[in-house]
Amino acid sequence: MRGFFISFEGGEGAGKTTLIEEMARQLSKEGHHVLKTREPGGTKLGEHIRAILLQHTEPVSAYAELSLFLASRAQHIMEVIGPALEAGKIVLCDRFNDSSVAYQGAARGLGMEQVSAFCKFISQGVEPQLTLYLDLDPRIGLARAAKERKQDRIEAETIMFHEKIREAYLEIHRAERHRFHLIDANLPPAKVFEEAMKLVHQHV
Question: Which of 39, 105, 192, 198 has most Cβ atoms within 10 angstroms of its Cβ?
Fold first, then answer.
């Protein structure tokens, strides 16, 4: 791949969307060709799946939930991410495989290793070269998110569910420090952006 793939991870309300917007503007100013995208979503099929995953009101099997996320991801890679990387673009993606490992693997109890293996099979070698994880206490993040929008199905889960997600992200950080970098999301937004850009400039 000629481009560079950056994913952004974090719990609800951590500030990923704001950071991606600011980073895209800065990298574009620096002369890079940038693609912003998100998961689930990024394609027509993915956006339909996103609506099901976040707004469906009936109980959803953890296995069905994971399968839907990965169906969206497979289409996303084929239709958007892969071509952008081949074209030499910097891809900024709001969530990728690490989210599945944390949310479905850890919080839903499907097993982090098992979900990771499934993700690698689906993504067929397309992996972020850099992941920026915005770390934040789930209670703070959920309170932030509640001010901005109505809770979706996953945000409405118990605090224990969200704490398991954070613990899983921290476990990934300990195991993959070369790729998976932690940024304190309690910092002022300008400082979060500064820390993120330092990491990006070290890699890109």
Answer: 105
What is the torsional sign of CA 128, 161, 193, 81?
positive
DSSP 25-43: HHHHHTT--EEEEESS-SS
What strand order describes the sheet that includes 90-94? 34-38, 90-94, 4-10, 130-135, 180-184
Q: Which tokens hold the place of 93?
A: 């993606």
- Environment class of 200 (CB within 10 Å of its CB; exposed 0-12, middle 13-18, buried 19+): buried
CA distance 138 to 13: 8
Q: Are 202 and 4 in contact (CB under 8 A)?
A: no
Q: What is the pLDDT along the chain (204 residues), one digit of tens a residue?
A: 689 999 999 999 999 999 999 999 999 999 999 999 999 999 999 999 999 998 888 889 999 999 999 999 999 999 999 999 999 999 999 999 999 999 999 999 999 999 999 999 999 999 999 999 999 999 999 998 888 777 788 888 999 999 999 999 999 999 999 999 999 999 999 999 999 999 999 998
Helical ranges in 59-188 per DSSP H: 62-76, 82-86, 97-100, 112-123, 138-148, 159-175
Adjacent-strand bridge partners of 135: 184
Provide the total of helices (H) and of strands (E) in the chain, helices listed first. Answer: 9, 5
Q: Is 65 exposed, middle or buried (0-12, 13-18, 19+ CB in 10 A)?
A: buried
